[in-house]
Write a structure and sequence with these properties.
The complex is a heterodimer of chains A (347) and B (286).
Chain A (H helix, E strand, L loop, with lengths): L2 H23 L7 H10 L14 H36 L11 H15 L10 H21 L7 H25 L4 H9 L7 H20 L1 H7 L3 H6 L4 H23 L5 H13 L3 H25 L8 H23 L5
Helix pairs in contact in A: 1-3, 1-13, 3-8, 3-11, 3-12, 3-13, 4-5, 4-6, 4-11, 5-6, 5-11, 6-7, 8-11, 8-13, 9-13, 12-13, 13-14
Chain B lengths: L2 H8 L19 E10 L2 E11 L4 E5 L6 H9 L6 E6 L2 E2 L5 H7 E4 L11 H7 L16 H11 L15 H14 L4 E5 L7 H18 L2 E5 L3 H7 L2 E6 L2 E6 L1 H4 L2 H8 L3 E5 L6 E5 L3
Parallel strand pairs in B: 3-8, 3-9, 6-7, 7-8
Antiparallel strand pairs in B: 1-2, 1-4, 4-5, 9-10, 11-12
Classes of the chains: A mainly alpha (347), B alpha/beta (286).
């Protein structure tokens, strides 16, 4: 970690904290930022003496039990998707790869949806069952997509995305079909195919946390290998990178954190595409910086997207995936246009 | 200023510095025994027996499709032979870990580096990858100084912060060369390194290589299309034809009209370089 990396990291962390406070305040009942900060500080042991409560009990309840867990969950899901996007782009060396375009999100949602609609979500491994099955179905999807796209040992940018889109629409259809079969309402279908963070709460935040923390640590440890890998697979091998091992490890971690995110939020599109690219445009391609900043940036992005989802048409909620697709799809089109112009075939 | 390159040749522990020992005690850096490589039905290399002594500079020549690049890939450990064995320092090549191999052998290809958005000095630093631990700390405490010296020597100082995608092909190849120097190899494999360079860069490139080679006593194996360049800079030449060794020897032995006629099916005329005593090739019309 060199000095030049510390400033962007610090800046992003400050933006993250500000975003948490502001997004917690915004809603049908507005809570001012100063009040939020004081409520939060009041809950730190030893701080009670310094802060006298000057807020209503209702404000505290709304904040701690409704707003804050939702904002924190948006942060973690966004972080997971941003990380996964950066990781997929890194090892597949494809600028258009992300959990959604590769079909991994949809693959994970099929596993999760089957489990929930059949009522087996707590069997086998208790609370771990859902993310585990989502991971397995996501990993199988990724394997099929990569196999479909491979042409003579290479994976052209275009065919990878095409295979991803094919798998994604097929798997999306399965999820919609399952949801139609169940007694649930239309809302449930929308939840799985367009994503949502409503009615979640602290247990989901705690379930999500270890995946994000472990994901950041493991992927960050691969950052230098991913830098070298961007020179090309053969070049990287000549420099001592175990290319196949690095690729497998990174793909598995990225799929796992995607599965965890999908298990709590459904399919939220394009976060993993938009965020790492924004950071690349701002600060360059170095994965030592890109990995942590994609996590933080993904968190910030999804917090604001979720706030928009719940406030723009309040009291009606817009599905979260709709908000991210409004931003992400045009951005995807821009990247497609650019990558076509620059390198007709990146692999 | 160039102490680090020289250091290797003056350190007694260096296994490649045999300047004080007699030639009879030298062990080959590389030894190939009955090496056979097939792609499917097609045999690309057939029972190659070859050994390379430390400090030598070999040029591998031969027509297209004679197996030159495949041989280099096998030596680099990125391809594996079906039969036979390669010994690097008397130890089978396949027993080396990727990292050990990267500390020993560096490879420079004809395409240089892709036009990435990494600044030049970061790319040079990637050459240190095989020496870094998982936290990114270099075994060599003075690694930064080494990178500075390389930039100085290859005139890369002004380009240090420029991203690769803003450089010309020749400049990128210079960065690729610097990255290989940063890797501090004992064996350097080159695959037509001058293909995309103009004539001035070709000369520069070969001169840098020659100086570096002499200072640090590295062994060089280069696939070269340009026979004149090969004769000018290599001590020994290996001629491949249809996956087999047709001949090996000094440039004088190989740059014979009869040999080249058979190897490339051309009508050559051999002349002597006006300044240095090496044979050079001219072509006659059919």
């Amino acid at each position: 970690m060199s000095r030049q990396h510390v400033w962007p990291l610090l800046l992003f962390l400050i933006l993250l904290v500000i975003s948490v406070v502001l997004n917690t305040g915004i809603g049908s009942v507005y809570i001012p930022g100063g009040q939020i900060t004081r409520i939060l500080l009041h809950h730190i042991p030893g701080m009670q003496r310094w802060i006298t409560p000057d807020w209503s009990e209702a404000a505290e309840q709304i904040m701690l039990n409704i707003r804050l867990p939702r904002v924190m969950l948006a942060l973690l899901v966004g972080a997971a998707l941003g990380l996964a996007g950066a990781a997929f782009q890194g090892v597949l060396r494809n600028p258009l790869a992300d959990p959604f375009t590769l079909g991994v999100s949809s693959g994970s949602s099929v596993g999760a949806a089957v489990l929930i609609f059949t009522g087996y979500q707590y069997s086998l491994f208790g609370g771990w069952t859902l993310p585990l099955i989502a991971f397995v179905s996501g990993a199988i999807t990724l394997y099929i997509v990569l196999a479909l796209a491979r042409e003579q040992g290479r994976i052209p940018t275009g065919s990878l995305i095409l295979s991803g889109v094919v798998m994604q629409s097929f798997l999306g259809a399965i999820v919609s079909f399952l949801a139609s079969m169940s007694e649930g309402s239309v809302n449930e279908i929308i939840f799985w195919t367009m994503g949502s963070l409503s009615l979640r709460g602290w247990p989901y935040v705690l379930a999500m946390l270890p995946y994000v923390v472990i994901g950041i640590v493991l992927l960050w440890s691969q950052a230098r290998a991913m830098n070298v890998l961007s020179l090309g697979e053969r070049e990287a091998a000549h420099l001592g990178v175990h290319v196949d091992r690095t690729k497998t490890v990174v793909l598995i971690i990225a799929t796992l954190i995607t599965a965890a995110a999908v298990s709590v939020s459904g399919v939220v599109a394009f976060v993993g595409l938009v965020v790492p690219h924004m950071i690349r445009l701002l600060l360059g391609p170095d994965y030592r910086l890109l990995i942590p900043l994609s996590a933080i940036g993904g968190g910030i992005f999804l917090m604001w997207a979720d706030t928009a989802a719940r406030t723009v048409l309040a009291p009606t909620e817009i599905p979260l995936g709709v908000v991210t697709a409004f931003v992400g799809a045009p951005f995807f089109a821009y990247l497609l246009h650019r990558s076509k112009k620059k390198q007709p075939d990146m692999m | 200023m160039l102490s680090k390159w020289k250091k290797r040749s003056t350190t007694p522990s260096n296994p490649y510095d045999h300047s004080s020992t007699s030639a009879g005690h030298r062990h080959p850096v590389l030894q190939l025994k009955e090496l056979t490589k097939r792609y499917g039905e097609q045999t690309v290399l057939h029972e190659i027996n070859w050994s390379v002594q430390p400090g030598e500079c070999w040029g591998i020549v031969g027509p297209n499709g004679s197996g030159k690049t495949t041989l280099l890939q096998l030596l680099a450990g990125t391809e594996h032979a079906q039969q036979g064995e390669i010994f690097l320092q008397q130890r089978p090549l396949h027993t080396y870990s990727r990292r050990e191999l990267a500390q020993h052998t560096a490879v420079l290809g004809q395409e240089g580096l892709a036009p990435l958005h990494y600044p030049v000095k970061e790319v040079l630093a990637m050459g240190r990858y095989p020496y870094q631990n998982w936290l990114g700390h270099d075994q060599l405490a003075t690694a930064d100084q080494l990178l500075d010296e390389i930039m100085e020597r290859l005139d890369l100082k002004e380009l240090a912060d420029r991203p690769l995608d803003q450089l010309s092909g020749g400049q990128r190849q210079r960065v690729a060369f610097g990255k290989v120097m940063a890797q501090q190899p004992k064996l350097l494999l080159l695959d037509e390194p001058t293909t995309y360079l103009d004539i001035a860069y070709q000369v520069h490139f070969m001169e840098w290589l020659d100086t570096w080679r002499r200072e640090s006593n590295i062994t060089v194996i280069a696939v070269l299309h340009d026979l004149n360049l090969a004769a000018r800079y290599c001590d020994r030449l290996l001629a491949l034809q249809e996956g087999q060794i047709m001949m090996q020897g000094t440039p004088e032995q190989l740059m014979e009209e009869s040999v080249l006629k058979q190897l490339f099916r051309i009508r050559p005329a051999i002349v002597h370089h006006p300044d240095i005593d090496v044979p050079q090739l001219l072509l006659k019309r059919r």
